[in-house]
Amino acid sequence: MVIAQNIARLRAEIPRHIKIVAVSKTMPADKVQEAYNAGQRVFGENKVQELLEKHPVLPADIAWHMIGHLQTNKVKFVVPFIRLIHSVDSFKLLFEINKEARKINKRIDCLLQIRIAGEETKFGMSIADAVTLLDSDEFKNLDNIRINGLMGMATFTDDRTRVKNEFLKLAEYFNELKSKFFLHDPSFAELSMGMSGDYDIAIETGATILRIGSLIFGERKKNY
Ligand SMILES: *Cc1c(COP(=O)(O)O)cnc(C)c1O
After folding, report:
1. Which stretch of DSSP H or E encloses residue 113?
2. Which of 6, 18, 136, 192 has the fewest CB atoms below 10 angstroms from its CB?
3. pLDDT by residue (tens digit) across 110-134?
4. How far apart, in whole angstroms, are the C-alpha atoms of residue 188 and residue 210?
5. Residue 20 reports pLDDT greater than 70
């Protein structure tokens, strides 16, 4: 009941064109089912193991998104069913996704994860690395992936001005890459930013996808 109410409240508040990924990491399958019953169809997980446990026991029309760091040796397990990978942070990973997708004749939608926060964040590529990647001949040969946009995580802080500036920076990078590499590619259209604590700032600064966990499912165990 609470989950359905949380989803209804968010859906009423968030503009229709913005997609909500319900981040179900650490939550058991019955909680995911509860959100599904309330109409939610897009779910995000950050660990391959959890994805592989939940995906077979839940409805087949769920769109599963990978939002956490993905190791190259685990790509083959998610490629058969994953709808969108938010966390592409290296050329090596993108190459691996392409390779595994080609084996099963699929095309996988991906976002490039760009580092916008302070030093405490490990994952994500710099904008310079993203430009190098998109400019390379190797990239142009990857026919089994598609780059749908960018993902970013702001610094974990109460300083809302700082968060806003980081999201604005990501939106700027998006426009820069769009005009440089994707001007005639309508599928480069997504900006995944904003979580439970900062989704309002993300909406203000141009997000098209929000990744919301605790505001839907309640607080998770600490240190996850
Ligand atoms: C956990 C997580 C979220 C959601 O966090 P909440 O604060 O619970 O909304 C969003 N994005 C990523 C990458 C996450 O790992």
Report:
1. strand 108-113
2. 136
3. 999 999 997 666 789 999 999 999 9
4. 17
5. yes
pTM for the full model?
A: 0.97
Side-chain-side CA neighbours of residue 55 (13 Å): 19
pLDDT the model gives residue 1:
76
C-alpha closest to that of 90 among 56, 123, 50, 48: 123
3-state secondary structure of 61: coil
pLDDT (mean) for 146-156: 96
As a whole number of angstroms, the distance between CA 124 and CA 9 comes to 31
Separation CA 171–CA 208 (nearest Å): 11
CA of 21, closest atom in ligand 1:
10
Query: Alpha-carbon distance 213 to 178, whole Å?
Result: 29
Ligand 1 pocket, mutate which of 40, 65, 199, 211 (most atoms under 8 A from CB): 211
Q: How far is the CA of 105 from the centre of ligand 1 (A)?
A: 31
The b-or-e profile of 18-50 (16+ CB within 10 A means b, else e) is: bbbbbbbbebeeebbbbbbebebebbbbbbbee
Whose Cα sits closest to atom 6 in ligand 1?
A: 213
Rounded distance from Cα 68 to ligand 1 centre (Å): 9
pLDDT 10s digits, 30-62: 999 999 999 999 999 999 999 999 999 999 999
Phi, psi for 122 (deg, rounded to 5): -85, -35
